[in-house]
Design brief:
alpha+beta, 3 strands, 11% strand
Length: 147
Amino acid sequence: MTVSTVTSRQRGGLRAERRALTREQAQGLIGAARGLEEAPAEAGKRRDQRTGLRDAVIVLLLATVGPRVSELVRANVEDFFTNDGVRYWRIFGKGGRTRDVPLPDDVGRVLQAYLVRGRPEMAGAGARRRCCCRGGGGGWRGVMCRR
């Protein structure tokens, strides 16, 4: 096995430099993402604009765990769990396959900091909705009655 080498395949005519990050680039991204864990909360921004920790979690998960982007997009908070002191991510992959992947300690710490500080809210998620049956404007469009 020491004689064999892995060579990259040509895909779509792109050079290898265009398909992957170099080791230095990946280490720089990971280092910057780890540094956001200790960074103070971004002042002067609305809560839904404070996405630094979220971005750090995304970069760390993609660079260290290596899921498909579609698997990361489908992830929910409930998919991250702790078992015997080890943080796991239950990944729902292609073809309905599920796998539990242990997270590295530094990724688990940044994820925990993100969950503790609070996730940014979706735009309009905290808005109060009025009932269309009781008057008070707004009309009937897009408002569900709770009765």
